Amino acid sequence: MTQQWNIEDAEALYGVKRWGAGYFSIGEHGNIQISPNHRKPDVYIDMNEVLAEMKAEGIEFPAVIRFHDILRSQVEIINETFRDTIETANYSGKYVGVYPIKVNQMREVVEEILDAGEAYNYGLEAGSKPELMAVLAYNENPEALTILNGYKDEDYLTLALLGRHIGRNMIVVVEKFSELEMLVRLSKKYKIDPMIGLRSKMMVRSTGKWSSSSGDRAKFGLSIAEIVNAMEYLKSHDMLHCAKLLHFHIGSQISDIRKVKEAVTEGARLYAKLVQMGVPLEYLDIGGGLGIDYDGSSTTTDSSRNYSTEEYVADIVYGVKQICDLEEVKHPNIVSESGRAITAHHSLVVTNVVGEVNPGATEFDFSAEEGEHVLVSNMRELVNGHDIHPQERYNDAAAYKQSAYEAFKLGILSIREMAKIDTIYWRVLTDIHHGLDSETRQIQELEELEDTLASQYLANMSIFQSAADTWAIGQLLPIVPLTRLHEKPEVRISIADITCDSDGKIGKYIEGNSISDNIPMHRLRKGESYPIGMFLTGAYQDVMGDMHNLFGRLTEVHIFSHDDEPGAFYIEEIVPGHSAEKVLETMQYNTDYMAKMVKKSIDKQIRKGALAPREGVRWSDFYESCLAGTTYLRDERK
Ligand SMILES: *Cc1c(COP(=O)(O)O)cnc(C)c1O
After folding, report:
1. Is the CB of 319 within 6 Å of ligand 1?
2. Nearest residue (CA) to ligand 1, atom 10
3. Could you say which of 44, 66, 189, 385 has the lowest number of CB atoms within 10 Å?
4. What is the number of the ligand 1 atom nearest to the C-alpha of 340?
């Protein structure tokens, strides 16, 4: 079973190290292993031990596993890379980064990032009123920045002024001229100076799925003319000294480093010109966009990036320095708003395969019978037709199947005969596929057999809840079996979820150096759970999910690594997922009323004598326990 297969082969197939950024790899026992602390690369957590502990705690699939050490590591890496580069470059400004909470607003995530970032005065960014309320409460560090983006109303701006009153470095980044007028009016009313940032609508266009954040038609930011007008306006209100920051953000997941360089050149030039005009700017905010290599290819495809974090930081620091030196302007403090890069790696969805859908897998006796229709015997002859050219054999099978279907509709073929033809058809296709050689594989129809024959593995999860971007914009996320990686995966499969929606499936997989429509995985074993992981879900996916089919949020398991613990980790917290009750209530159902109505119907049956009273109580208890229970499927295999 394991012949000619080892974990190097599994690594080549699933590319775990290529997208794992040093955090994920395949251990010698064929389990995924996690090395969550970048300062202690030799501390490994075996995924199978995590799954065992989850089971011992009674946690069912699907679940989100968060590795808090990975969050901390990413915060440390970005801050230290900027620090070190600034020192080497003799750059005279500081790095003061912020984490944009829209990328993952979970309180525990934000708290961990703030805690890990405290030593670096790492701050927060908000883009809406509720986010602003959260950062106002949580970012208490008086040295750190709070950057306020997004469209704003009076309440938003007043909350920002409240922040100034309680000593926070809250910078209101103006997206539209009208916001500036409102802000000036309110700051006079409340007698406090705001800290003002200006968002520039950049000319450089990023590429990829999020490129519309820049360019003339971008939804956000001020044109150069508007920026100059804004400065005049502030001057006329004697508030030019409040202008502190120039901001730009050309889009998320920038895959090509050249776009970063271009944006930095444009932004730094604009910064320098404004300073020369007498605007007392101190900060240049380069926004987010630091990419994640989701497919591990290190290229400029939408799901990758062709640069390292070191290269990104160096291009920014040296790029800003060069322009400011040329323009003879003091080096600004550099702000960045990386979200995806901080959080993507720290969480994954683990779930199990609850079933398989395979058109060719049904067993059915198709042996010859006296007087059977000639189409059945014709099709049966193809089973042993190894001498026939595969293309011809395929054409014949397809033609017989089509004729059989017509005959069935006309009532000529019996239901048993139709079942036989169907069974033989799939048998023949499988046999043709196995017999293909390098030449016949080139024939398009035959090449497509791989897809036609691939099974679907049903994963106990909702794509709409846990991986919204795979459905919405074709985002790639690595999907890998969590165990058995030392065994050869022998079947090609694609993953479908348990929602009643035919879009509820994953269409693209990372396979070796390419992207496939399906992927090899192991055969399911009776009575044995087959756990799979969907990785890099910590940015956006964790928090963008919707209520499609009312599945709701997953149970979460928060893990910390610890050298002294058995297995080098402990579960710090379990956050239960949404119960059926909870998701129904979000849709305005009153679940007490529902339970009462069901009980009333049960009681009616009892009164009629159709149900024994004891039995009736059991049924209504069962209904209530399901309301309190999970929305996902219970695992029958364990
Ligand atoms: C979304 C967003 C970010 C975060 O971008 P990432 O690519 O996730 O780092 C930063 N700044 C602004 C203004 C944003 O809208």
Report:
1. no
2. 288
3. 189
4. 8
CB-based contact 342:356 (threshold 8 Å): no
Query: What angle, 0 to 180 degrees and rounded to 10, lies between the N-to-C axes of helices 415-435 and 374-383?
Result: 20
* Alpha-carbon gap, residue 314 to 89, rounded angstroms: 9
What spacing in Å lies between the alpha carbon of 338 and ligand 1's midpoint?
Answer: 6
> Rounded to the nearest whole angstrom, what is the distance from the C-alpha of residue 549 to the centroid of ligand 1?
30
CB 545 within 8 A of CB 462: yes
C-alpha distance from residue 287 to each of 246, 267, 305, 312, 315 (Å): 10, 11, 17, 13, 14
pLDDT score for 205: 75
Q: Is the CB of 15 under 6 A from ligand 1?
A: no
Contact call for residues 358 and 456 (beta carbons, < 8 A): yes
Whose CA is closest to 479, among 452, 448, 505, 449?
505
Query: Structure tokens of 428?
Result: 């023949």
**For the residues 43-57, what does the mean pLDDT come to?**
96
> From the CB of 554, is ligand 1 less than 6 Å away?
no
Separation CA 37–CA 23 (nearest Å): 8
Say yes or no: CB of residue 289 within 6 Å of ligand 1. Answer: yes
> Is the bond preceding 62 in cis, omega lying within 30 degrees of 0?
yes
Length of the chain measured in residues: 638
- Rounded percentage of the chain residues whose pLDDT exceeds 90: 88
Residue 571 burial by Cβ neighbours in a 10 Å radius (0-12, 13-18, 19+)? middle
Query: 72 with 112: CB under 8 angstroms?
Result: yes
28 class by beta-carbon count within 10 Å (0-12 exposed, 13-18 middle, 19+ buried): exposed
Under a CB-based contact definition with an 8 Å cutoff, are residues 346 and 292 in contact? no
- What pLDDT does 499 receive? 92
pLDDT category at 637 given cuts 50, 70, 90 is low
CA 627–ligand 1 middle distance (angstroms): 38
Secondary structure E strands in 257-304: 283-285
Instruction: Enter the tokens of residue 561.
Output: 């690594």
- 462 HSE (CA, 13 A, CB side): 20
For 412-455, the pLDDT digits (tens) are: 999 999 999 999 999 999 999 999 999 998 999 999 898 889 89
- Asked if the model's pLDDT at residue 638 lies above 80, the reply is no
Is there a catalytic annotation at residue 500?
A: yes
Check pocket membership of 249 for ligand 1, CB cut-off 6 A: yes
Q: Can you tell me the distance from the alpha carbon of 380 to that of 40, in angstroms, rounded to the nearest whole number?
A: 62
Average the pLDDT over 5-23 and give the result: 97
Q: Which residue has the tokens 């940015």?
A: 539
Say whether pLDDT at 96 is over 60. yes
pLDDT of residue 2: 46
Q: Which of 172, 208, 179 is nearest to 193 (CA)?
A: 172
- Give the residues across from 457 on adjacent strands: 356, 495
DSSP conformational letter for 1:
-
Confidence check: pLDDT of 343 > 50:
yes
Phi, psi of 572 (to 5 degrees): -85, -35
pTM: predicted TM-score of the whole model, two decimal places? 0.92
